[in-house]
Structure formats: structure tokens, C-alpha cells
Amino acid sequence: MSATASASVPARSGAIEPAGRKPGRISVEMIGVYAVLILAALAIAMPLYVMVVTSMKTMPEIREGALFALPSRANWDAWVKAWTSACTGLTCEGIRVGFWNSVQILIPSVIVSIAVGSINGYALAFWNVPGSKILFGILLLGAFVPYPIFVYPLVRILSTLGLYGSLPGIVLIHTIFGLPVMTVLFRNFYASLPIELFKAARVDGAGFVRLYLKIMLPMSIPILVVAVILQVTGIWNDFLLGLVFAGRENFPMTVQLNNIVNSTQGEREYNVEMAATMLTALVPLAVYFLSGRWFVRGIASGAVKG
Amino acid sequence: MKPRRFLRHIPGFIALAPATLVVLVVYIGCVAWSIQISTTNSRILPSSQYVGLRQYEILFANERWLTSLQNLVIFGLLFIAIAIAIGFLLAILIDQKIQGEGLFRTVYLYPFSMSFVVTGLAWQWILTPANGIEKVVRDLGFPNFRFDWIVDQQMVIYTIVLAAVWHAAGLVMAIALAGLRGIDAEIWKAIRIDGIPKWRAYLFIVIPMLKASLATAVVLLSISVVRLYDLVVAMTHGGPGIASEVPAKFVIDYLFERQNIGLATAGTTVMLVTVLAVLTPYVYLQHRRSLKGGHA
Fold it and tell me: How far apart are CA A245 and CA B31, in angstroms?
């Protein structure tokens, strides 16, 4: 295609062309490129659009109208109902219960898992502890193991410890399953820092803790941002671990959302369901839109570690 | 080890103690425990009665398990192939010095930030025949149009592929774009001097240079394949019938609803062996490479 395009569209003589590899003229080829990009963008944006418009329609409007039609007017009733009075299984207090559960799970889980991961990464990268290579190898492998394998033994262990179905229990679980990714992320970051930094501080007499707090931690801001983004979106979006380990009282928002939609009796209120879905998606979407570049970098770092 | 050297290692040992405990108890202990239970006739409670590979015989005679495995293979192959194809194509198009690159990237990647539950519910709504795309096309004047895959036993697994590709295509695009941006400008110069058409340059020169990006994308997508659970639960709940069941759902259902721990742990063991067989060579290479790059 590109061969015929460049043959049939003559180059404008005398036009200023950028020094890069691509001449900056509007060709048939570029129209094709934009057409595909725009079509893809519309297709990918479509579900979000459908969720938003459906959540603002009334039920009669949904039954009559088409999927893509705009609501006759902006109507937030379904959002209010989803937040305050939709039934999540046995109770009908809306998805806000799940929202606050998710917040309560999220904050300690993010803090603890990142703290543990960064200390591990630091110890692995600089302190050359005997046996640490084996530990690192198993952690790397651990990142791939399917969760269901751990579920039954961990349920038993947490029951024995009295942590099953409790907030500390689910925080511990998120820390355990965040351990491989967080450790490898931080280890690789610290391994990229110049070793002279470490040696100089050692000569000055800084010990394990002081070196970490005074030198390594302040230098870790870029990777900390990445780790926070990875853990916030990952833990907020978790479903299986929350379902199994959090207990009925602490079900995260994703579990309650699924209960609203997939356990309702009688006519399904699609507008309320879509409003609840949007409410659940708001936190990760906000993280994504606000952190932009960092989100991409977070995914890329997540990718490096495997 | 000399005592002084040992003393020097004490802070490191203390720092790594929790991780070591997790590795020993969870990554080794729990896995070993699961495998051990799978050789007993445990049902609601674990039993110590050894039955050898009996649970595995039952497992592989179970229609639901066989459907789950088959679904996972279909899903895995299609999902990875399509997500990679779309992701790389979008990355190459975005790389053509276009206007509004940031906007396109933002739109393509946003689905990846959302949970599989949200993804599943959104697509369930869009694909429901009575309200969704089928109705839209019928209202456009095609009263016989059918798009009821989500309630069709033969086709339902493809709707899950559709939703998963929507979720992950942007991720592949981001990884591929990073790879493309890392290619030396000299290579592009050489391609232009040689007068190689762009499509041939991409197909035979550039894409083969993106091996690392491709490997990363395949590994990340493979992890979602093995972990496939939330999406199915939210979108089809394994139905209609057992048509969209997957191994992770089989295991969780047999653990908590059907109270058959022996069979469930046999299922997890099969999953583990499969994953390790596929990924051990990759992790080994990664591990060697990353050790070379570090100080330790």
C-alpha cells in the first residue's frame, strides 16, 4: 500500500520536510492511518460511552431506546440508587458499603506491600545476603503461579491464626501476593543505581537502616510512584482474593458490584447496574487519567519484572 | 562463615526474614500441601487417606473440567494472537508521526485500568441480544440480524475473548510503542536509502527487532490467561450451561460450593504443572539476565 501511495502522490517540491524518517505531507497513506486509528479509538471508547449513557437513562427509556442513544436528559437517579440503596446480596445499602471496604483494604495493603517490597529490593540489591539469589529466583517464579493453588492452604492457615475473613487478613494476603512484583520492581531499580553511592555511605559508617532511610528511600521516588500506581489499581481491581479472604463484612467493591448484577431477582435495572459499574471503575480510571505517563511506565516496569 | 562476616549479614537476614517466611510457607509450603491433598480422598475436610492418582482420574473424566481446559486453550491462543496483532498494528500506526498521539494512546489504554468485573459487566450489557448490539442493528433495518453469541453455547467463549482483547490491546500497544521508539534512527535511514517500502520494512526488519517487546507482551498476556476468572464470573458465570467454564472457576467452585477439596487441589496441581512447564525456561533466562545486571 505504501509503495503505491508514495508513487501516486507527488511530493510537494520546495516544502520544508522534517529531518526524520517520515515526510510530513498528507498522503493517501496518512488518511488511511488516521481512518484506522479513529475507528479503533471509537470501538475502544464505545463501552465506556454505553455505560455512561445507560446509567443516565430511565428504565422505560432503556427498554425502548437504542444502546447508543443519548438519554433524554441527564438523570442521576440510578447513580444515587446504586450508591445508597441497591441490593448487594442480602443487604440493600448500596455500593458505598463496598466502596468504603475497598478503601479500608486498599490503604494499609498499598503501604505495607510497598514497604516490604522496597526493603526486600534494597537488601537483595546491595547487601549480598547469603541465599538471597535463591530467594529472588523463587519470588520471580512466584509471580506466575495461579492463585487458586494457594487458596485452600491459605484459608486454613488464616483460620488457624484467626485472621480469616478479617481486614488484617486480607491486607496480609495482598501483601503476600504483591511481594514478588514489588520486590523485583524495587530490586531492579536499586540494582540500576551506582554502587559507589552505597560504598561511599558505607565508608562514612552508615548502617543498614540509616542507608535505607537517608539515601535509598529519597532516591526511590520515581519507582515509588510506579509501585503505588501498580498496587492501587491492582488491589482496587482485585476480585478473587477479596471474595475468598475478606469475609462478607469486608467484601470489596468489585465483589459487591458483581453481587448487585448477578444475583438480582426479577427485572434487572440496567441503569442502576451501569451506574454501580461506573462507580467501581472511577478510582482506577482517575488514577489512569491523572497519572498518565506514570501509569504507562508502571505497566512497563511491571512488564520488565515479568 | 567467619563470625564477623556473619554479623555483617544480620540486618540483611532480618530484612529478608518476612519474605523468606512467605516463600517457605506460601510459595513452597502451600503448594506442597495442595499437591499432597490432591492425592487423598478429601471432600469437605482434608482427609489423610492416600488414594494415589484417583482424583486425577476423576478430574479427567469430568466433562466440566475438560470443557474448562478446552476453553482455556481456545481463549489463550485467540486472546494472545489477536491482542498482539491489534496492539502491534496500533503501535505502528501511532508511530507514523501523527497528530494527537497522546489522545489516541489514552483512549486505547484506558480499558486496562479497569477491573475484569467492570469489563465483564459492561460487555455483558452490550452483548445481551435483547438490548445490545443485536437490537441496534435490527433497529437499523435488519430485523433478522443475529448476534447472540453470549447466550450461544458454541460461541460464548469468543465473547470472552472479545472482552479480554478490548481490555488488553492497549497494553500491547504501549509495550510495542516503547519497543518501536527504541529502534535506532540509523536503521530507518538505511531503510529509506535502500528504498524498501514501509510495509516490507515493518514486516521483515522492524517487527523482528521487537522480539523483547513481543516476549514481554506474550508473558503478561499469558498471566491473564492462567488467572482468567473474574471476567468469566462477571460476564457469563460460566454459562450458558458449562459452555464458558475455565479451570480457575472450576477449582474455586469445587473448593467452596461443591466441597470437594481433593478434586479441586488436583485441578490446581494440573494448572501449576502447566504453568511451570511453559514458564520455567523463560524465568530462568530472565533470572540470569537480571543477575548479570545487578551488583549482587
Answer: 18
* Cell numbers describing residue A202: 558505607
Tell me which residue has cell 490491546.
B169
Of A258, A287, A303, the CB nearest to B234: A258
Mean pLDDT (chain A, rounded): 86
Q: Whole-angstrom distance between the N-terminal and C-terminal Cα of chain B?
A: 18
* Percentage with pLDDT > 70 across chain A: 89
| Pick among B5, B26, B226 to test the A interface (most A CBs inside 10 A) | B26
C-alpha distance from B283 to closest chain A C-alpha (Å): 7
Model confidence band, residue B226 (pLDDT cutoffs 50, 70, 90): confident
pLDDT at A68: 87
The grid cell for B246 is 475455565
Q: Rounded to 5 degrees, what angle do the CA atoms A253, B122, B76 make?
A: 95
SS3 B184: coil
**Could you tell me which chain A residue has the CA closest to the CA of B252?**
A148
DSSP string, B50-97: B-TTHHHHHHTT-HHHHHHHHHHHHHHHHHHHHHHHHHHHHHHHHTTT
Highest mean pLDDT among A209-213, A264-268, B162-166, B240-244: B162-166
B133 with B139: CB under 8 angstroms? Answer: no
**A88: helix, coil or strand?**
strand
User: Is-cis flag, bond preceding B240, omega within 30?
Assistant: yes
Rounded CA-CA distance A104/A252 in Å is 9
**Of A184, A226, A175, A113, which Cα lies nearest the Cα of B283?**
A184
From CA A26, how far away is CA A29, in angstroms rounded? Answer: 8
The answer, for B224 touching chain A at a CB cutoff of 8 Å, is: no
Inter-chain residue contact A254 with B166, CB threshold 8 Å: no
The mean pLDDT value of chain B amounts to: 89
Tell me the whole-structure pTM to 2 decimals: 0.89
Taking CA atoms, A22 is separated from B149, B188, B234, B247, in Å, by 43, 9, 45, 48
Residue that wins the pLDDT comparison between A173 and B141: A173
What digits encode the pLDDT tens for the residues B267-286? 999 999 988 887 777 767 76
| B60 contact A CB<8A | no
- For residue A55, give every residue at least 6 positions away whose Cβ sits within 8 Å of its Cβ, in sequence order, or none: A78, A79, A82, A271, A274, A275, A277, A278
Among left, alpha and beta (phi > 0; psi -120 to 50; other), residue B62 is beta
Task: Convert the pLDDT of each residue in A164-174 to its tens digit.
Answer: 999 999 999 99
3 state DSSP class of A203: helix
Contacts of A184 in chain B (CB under 8 A): 290
Is pLDDT at A228 greater than 80 in this prediction? yes
Is B19 close to A151, i.e. CB distance below 8 A? no
Of A30, A48, A299, the CB nearest to B174: A299
Residue A256: closest C-alpha in chain B: B117
In the predicted model, what is the mean pLDDT of residues B98-120? 94
Check residue A110 and give its pLDDT: 97
| ipTM of the complex, rounded to two decimals | 0.89
Rounded Cα gap, residues B230 and A103, in angstroms: 20
Contact B287/A136, CB-based, under 8 Å? yes
* Whether residue A301 has pLDDT greater than 80: no
